[in-house]
Amino acid sequence: MSAQLILIAIMAYFFMLLGVGYITSRKAGKSEYFIGNKQSIWWLVAIGMLSDSMSGVSFISVPGKVYSANFYYMQMVMGYLLGYLVIAFILLPLYYKMNLTSIYTYLGSRFGVYGQKVGASYFVVSRLLGSAARLYLTAAILQTYLFDAWNVPFWLSVAIIIALILVYTIKGGIRTLVFTDAIQSVFLIAGLVTCISILIYKSGASYTEILEISPYSSWFNWEFNSSSYFIKHLLGGAFICIAMTGLDQNMMQKNLSCKSIGDAQKNILSYGVIVFLVNIVFVSLGAVMIYYLTVANIPMPMRDGAAYTDGIFPMLALNHLGVAAGIAFILGLAAATFSSADSVLTTLTTSTYIDLFGIDKKDMPEVSKTKFRNRLHIGFAVLMLFTILLFEKYNSKTLIDAILTLAIYTYGPLLGLFGAGILSKIKVAGWPIIVVCILSSAVTYAIASIPADTLAGYHLGYEKLLLNGAITFFGLWLVSMLQKKG
Question: Which of 55, 215, 288, 356 has its CA 20 to 30 A from that of 102?
Fold first, then answer.
């Protein structure tokens, strides 16, 4: 597929987003930017959350991961369903009862200013690095198939992508994102379905036939010592969902923009079902891609002497499946690219504005507050650019693993903080909260670094997130006991 066609498709897509952004941001003020004036339509929010949570990582990495891990990823997605129940019936009622704009305000009510700032800081670090990783993956694909054709350097191509996102998000905030992300989810799913349909047609076999003969379509791993053992993935998925969705401002801010708690609950439960079904399509695509490589006698893409599974989908879509698949892939990837960064710029701005600087409570003219908010929005865009460039320089592993591994060490303390706040009457004040959260991640990392041979062959998986949260909980309890005695 030519670079010219790719450019035309992306520019058409961007101007569509720009038009939607212009319409939805007219007369947008503080309330519209932060929580959409509490008028967001729940089913639009549910659809839009799909592209925001899956992004380019799922679009590229999850299908490719089937080559090394079968359909085991679905075990974790099953765990997500349990996590969505906790979010819908425990976390959302709490957030709505307190009428929150930033969910870390809750930590401030339970543990004081240190609790709020620590929670917000972990979110900022987690989301900045995670979103940079997601955007890096999709930007690297666009660099290879588009920008390299015009000798545009990687740093400039990423800067262009982020600048385009700034244009339609800086004014409208959440109000704009509810609509643009819903549109992007539709393009992401349409691109996925189009590509898998063309692959099945060209392979000469039916979908069920491919799955029946594929050695990569096993759903469950019952080997106890394996890091992908069913129970590990199920529990890991549940707590990853709670932490990365329910305790994440980026995901919750849209939920808090719904008209009522009932709408927010319908949104999150519907979203959970959509995530499960779409992930089935993702892993199925992986099995079909590998089958097609075999029947078409196409070599597996390689990097550093090993199979480069993240490269399978773009290679097939852009070089082997024709123009229709190429356009579908590019538009799906564009949807993933823009949704990876647009929401996070708004929510990083929100949490920093409210939790770290407390601008919402300061006696300042509204014009000054808006200027400060816009500077934060632009500042995070620049910071994301530099983070992506660093990630591009040092990244050397599959991004889906990198992001989920990162979540263990950054979302674990959030899990412990919210768990202690909701499930206990623990009271902790001051800087010890910071020490507990940092030490819990360090201890978890040390335990995770113990060789499997020392643990009788047991490989720690995503249950490390629960371990990190439990250590944080215990540390807060211990500090609270010491402070009582002191």
Answer: 55
Could you identify the residue written with the tokens 């249950």? 463
Q: Residue 161: which of 132, 183, 129 has the closest Cα?
A: 132
CA distance 411 to 325: 37
Beta strands (DSSP E) in 229-358 are: 302-303, 306-307
For the chain, the first-to-last Cα distance in angstroms comes to 70
Per-residue pLDDT of the chain (486 residues), as tens digits, is 566 777 777 778 777 777 776 676 655 555 455 555 556 676 677 777 776 666 666 677 777 777 777 788 888 889 999 999 999 999 999 999 888 888 889 998 888 888 889 988 888 888 887 777 777 877 777 787 777 778 888 888 888 888 888 777 766 566 677 777 778 788 888 888 888 888 888 887 788 888 777 777 778 878 777 777 788 888 888 888 888 888 888 778 778 877 788 888 988 998 888 888 888 888 888 888 888 888 888 887 777 677 777 777 878 887 887 888 888 887 887 777 677 677 778 788 888 888 888 787 777 787 887 788 888 888 888 988 888 887 777 654 445 456 556 767 888 898 899 988 898 888 888 888 999 999 998 888 888 777 766 766 666 666 777 888 899 999 999 988 888 776
**Which DSSP string do the residues of 242-257 spell out, in sequence order?**
IIIIIT-HHHHHHHTT
> If you ran DSSP here, which 8-state letter would residue 150 be given?
G
Are 200 and 207 within 8 A, CB to CB?
yes
What the chain holds in terms of domains, given with CATH numbers, is 3-396 (1.20.1730.10)
pTM beyond 0.90: the answer is no
